[in-house]
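Lab channel / #folding
Pinned by the channel admin:
"Please post every new chain as: sequence first, then the structure tokens as a reply. Keep commentary short and put observations after the output so the thread stays searchable."

First post following the new format, from NK:
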Amino acid sequence: MPTLRLNDYDLAYVETGSGTPLVMIHGSLCDYRYWSPQMQAFGTQRRAIAVSLRHCWPEAWDGSGDGYSAEQHVDDLIAFIDALDAGPVDLLGHSRGGYVALRVAQRAPQRVGRLILAEPGGLPDASLVAAPDAIRAHTEARTQAAAALIAAGDVDGGLAVFINGVSGTPIWERMASGFRRMATDNARTLLGQVREARPQLTRAGLEAITQPTLLIGGALTPPPFPKLLDLLQTHIAGARRVTIAGATHAMNLAAPRPFNAAVLDFLA
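Reply from TO:
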């Protein structure tokens, strides 16, 4: 696999196709393999590039030390886009990767052409919701519980807590072997994730986004993701929204055909 040396780190990625780059950013417990159902379809119309964020597979990180934070990942993605030297790129991010994509668009708007956010993570502040602490407590409790199990050696139990929580259903036990392997490879990144301090989402920050934006959600995804999509749709001017029927949080895996079609239609 190719790598680029950026910010004293070798960032791994895969790519296919040609033309305007579409850079895909995975979420928690994942890496560039998460986008396998999208690579061929997107590569027919774009230079499709999937990255593995710092400390994710193929690195075998033990969860200690620094460097696993959303802001570090934003820094790395901006450097990655610059290294491509191909002009503005389109960005697609899922879950935590959607938050990273959003922050890249805010911090480096000239580097982003179109923005696609598939149930992005992030915590809204008081300018967006009346009780932000309640959302924070719910989200952080799940991540902390999962990380504690993983740190104690119960990797499978910790992954079940996290994956089932974000999906709203006991889906971990039924996930395909490829996804289970990927999540297991990245399990200890949750130890870094519980230590990160992500800047909250603000009304002013969302209203400052000027890129054409597509929001994608699963029809069966539990809170807080649908509420967050509501907030983004309200405060990002002109944002379009697509709901994938019958899917939960990992909608691009469960329903790749409608997901891919929605993205390609937006990019066209």
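NK: The chain has a mean pLDDT of 95.
TO: also worth noting, The chain is about 45% helix and 15% strand.
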